[in-house]
User: What shape does this take?
Amino acid sequence: MALFLQRVIDGIGNGMLYGAVALALVLIYRATGMVNFAQGEMAMFCTFVTWKLADHQFGIGLPIVVGIAGGVAFGFLFGMALERVVIRPFESADHLRQMIVTLGLFLAINALAAWIFTADTQRLASPFPSGALHLGGVSLSYQELGVVGVLLVMALLLRELFGRTRLGLAMRGASMNPESSRLLGVDVSRMLMVGWGLSAAIGALAGALVAPAVFVSPGMMQTLLLYGFAAAVLGGFDSAPGALVGGVVVGVTQALVSGYVSAIGTQLQLATAFALILAVLLVRPQGLFGRVPVERV
Amino acid sequence: MHPRPKIMLMAAALGAVGLAAGACGGGAVNDTSGAAAGGSGLTRNCPDNGTTGLTDTTIKLGLSQPLSGPYVSVGGQLYGMQAYFGYINSQGGIKGPDGKRRKVELVYKDDAYTATKAKANVDQLINRDKVFALLGQFGTAGNLAARPVIAQQCVPSLFATTGAPELANPKYPWAIAGSISYMVEGRILGKYVRDTTPNATVAVLEQDDDLGKAYRQGFDQAIAGSGVKVVKTETFEASDPDVKNQITTLAATKADLYFNISSGLTGLQALNHVHESGWKPQVIQVSQLPTPLLNKLQPGAGDKLILGTTGQDFTNPEVVRNSAEYQLYLQWLRRTPGADKIDPISASLGWTQGRLFDWTVQHAKSMDRAGVMESARNLDYTGPTFTLPGIKIRTTPGDPHLLEGLRFHRFDRGKGHLVPFGEVIDIDGQVKYEAVTG
Amino acid sequence: MNKTTNRILWAVLLGALVLAPFFVGTVEISAFQKVIYLSVAVMSLNVLTGFNGQASIGHSAFMGIAAYFTALAVQSHGWSYWAALPASVLVAALVGAAAGVPALRIRGMNLALVTLGLAMVFPQLPVRFTEETGGTQGMILDESLGAPAFLAVSDVAWRYWVLLTLAVLAFWLVRNTRASRLGRSIIAIRDQPIAAHTAGVNVAATKISVFAVSAGMAGLAGWMFTVTNQFVSPSDFTVLVSINLLLGMAVGGSGTLLGPVIGAAFLHYVPDAVTATGIDPVLTPVLYGLVLILVVYFLPGGAAGGLAQLAKRFSTARKPSPPAGEPARPVSQLTSSTPNP
Assistant: This one.
């Protein structure tokens, strides 16, 4: 029983990492209507900035919380700059061309990070204490608890942003119906720019949260990406709390399947995520929480 | 759609003309080098006399290794090698058995750690760049993929950067590994466990590939017939973002020992998770986790860790101070363009490979490929080295394993380096080639 | 550029390619073989994405399936390469058709996601079945596709000619299909799905067949891969390979026969060229990414489209050039903007 509980807890812990990636994907989708394949790489790049600010050996050695704040601020500017310079010319292009452009960003940002910073694996300090809480044969690390807390707050804030605030509504309008938004006096391009900035900032935060577990390296987000997509698809691609729940579903499924289904074992964990994506898109394309069908041609 | 058949006809006609003309041409059509089969004797079926890549004053070497892509960080050896050749060229070059000194010209290519690209690179290095030999060829898959090319053309591939037991296969005498065989290391770790904790239970995390299987096979052989028992094995893939699930399963066994057959990032994750799980086993770590990485563990996670290494630990400033060879290396590395971006410790491997090549050429009976290969298979190196004292650097025609010894170390997180204990365990001469059966 | 010059150009190019093994060495011929299979792979993606408007980041998987099928059939089951050729193409086509079924419901970005998943999962399969496939170390084939004895030519040249012939056939097939009724339906589905439906095109069947044909052609490239390299490993079929194929398609331009060849040559020769210039090879992907973005922006028809545009501008007298900043409408677009239903 303790083992089963521990597996569920592991699943939630891993699921939160996927949820963190999914949050950034969802945000950019809601704000711009795009699926950004470079999201993970942008987050990785910002995490390197955080590392450079906070690391004692290779960086400036600022306190980790300050480093994260710096990384998030950098992420916001970085995202806005990318939108202005690279994405804006493709604002009204079709999805295929947008996809190719974000894949181009994926390649470029990844290699630039290796060149500017380092290709070596680096450690990023955690803002949470190390060690774990041991409760009746089950262990819960403080790191995981902290991540869960921060992400829940983030998800709720995002929901407020898109549901209640003027800015959020304007962003949604700009992405869903740019023509009418323009007529209503919304600066669509600026909204998209803010959307990219915000999602890159969330990505920077997500990167800093997952880094103590997966370390900092140019490849750090790539193994998480498919799981992040699975979480986002499961959550409906337009719901922030849904992304987190989706992440947890993916994480727990994966933990239980790899723990108890020996035919899949630990070798085909990616296949589990893939199967989830496929099943959700076929059976319930709006995901568990999506209100509108996300299917776009 | 009418023009196409016409074009095909024209092309066919051109082709026929070409076939007629080709009888006297010098292109790929007449190049039958591909027909020669890889022989077992050194010079049987070799296409030439084995002096390609040599002049009276130069010797051309080739290397294919990752210089881009996700594994680029392992590519430092190139700079270490360039540092050595910079040094030796400044001394007039490598002295051959014919008394001539030759400066080394190193041709390197990027394979992004893709085996197919490595094979294509080796093909180009041998057939287009006309290198004399390959040095420090990187990675298990790349070495195996390129092996048929090497065998066909009888080109020495010396001190390859891999510990795959397959490199010792007597069917392919033209390649020799530079790192300790994973299987040999596994066997020495197993011997240590058997000698120190004869009734221990062991839980194993194993990389799901030939590296993992080779370590495991050596370990299992060493503990066979003793009271040491493996109670649980979990595997992982390079694509797994985290190995937490596996560690939870292993921790549930509460075994006495944890055998961590994982390298790099995954190795670190695993050790951190073991620490968090509350399970407090003695950790046996494979040497694929170098000290700079161990320093990135959570505080406490490396406390009960031991590992065996062949090399001195240059993260320890005292070791650096006491090694004249390392000082010389650093001095030449600083003069190597591009080396400022790499970690000198991991790049030192390239310097070692340069040293070994130098020695091999000096001790060859004849200055040609067969002579140099023969020399690499009869090596007894006693020159300056980064290897720990007491570990033999030796090969014989029947035992191509260069290194077969380890010294055990504890990891001291406070000081940030390894602390040796016990004696060197060297099983030189006791190892035969054995395929990984997994 | 009129039709006759076009034909003469093609004949000269093909003639030069056919004769190449008489004049250049084995290393160059092996490199040509790689460009050939990459061209076929880029063309296969082009059939699905360029003509039918469906995105795929999964073509590395279709290629890999056929490459591994061939390797296993030849190495472990004693097949000849020739027997493995139709079988491996068929297997890839079947997997492609199966992937096409969900594509009826899943479209646009979501389809891209599914194919991304396919590409990420595929390299795991050989590792899962390490006993049979050699796992991460890959699998060396002892047999090679040798020249028949009576021809008295080297094996390398023979393999090159085999690949060249098959590639020409495949390209010829694509060209003919595009001009056929089926081809027009395929393009109609891309541009006007609803109109195509009302005009009596069986959208579902057509889409699945396009998937099957595209994957089968990627499978042909996979067979060629194994023939060329006599080696397969999981790292040869990662998602990066799929992204590179998209890059090749974008660079070369999707509408023409020449586009995939230009794209493939780019993919093969640029990395070595970068290393040769002394630029840190770490930066090669940066170059790739920038080229990808710039090409999609300035040259939506790719290099081949750009060439055609240029030729047109020279042959037709002084027409006003398109306004600056607005990319010229290409002869055949990489992607056409699909109207929302």
User: Anything to note?
Assistant: The first strand of chain C starts at residue 139 and ends at 140. Chain C touches chain B through 61 residues (CB under 8 Å). The radius of gyration of chain C is 20 Å. The CA atoms of residues 173 and 277 of chain C lie 39 Å apart.
